[in-house]
Amino acid sequence: MPNESLDSTKVANIRTVYDQLCESYRAIDDFRTKLLAALPLASGAGIFLLIRKPGEGIPTELLMPIGVFGFLTALGLYIFEIYGIRKCTHLIVVGGYLEEQGQQT
Length: 105
Known about the structure:
Low-confidence stretches: none
Radius of gyration: 24 Å
Number of helices: 2
Shape: rod-shaped
Strand content: under 5%
Mean pLDDT: 83
Oligomer: single chain
Number of strands: 0
Helix content: over 70%
Structural class: mainly alpha
Largest sheet: none
Number of domains: 1
């Protein structure tokens, strides 16, 4: 009988950890989706602000800083996306391990 109680406690613990793992995955995935959804809105807003009446162009000396800022922003989002992909992949691997542990008991 003591073994059965130990096994049910272990399965309950694995289930709790697995549930938390799934919540973490969903939270990361949701944040990444919202961030990527905001990118076209920010790009559209930037284009709208930069396009003016034909006679009112952007001063030439501002074009380089605007371009560098846009590049660095896009690079930062790309790096953050790679980080999110790696973290989600790790959570999937750990989840698979927990599933195997739950089936063995």
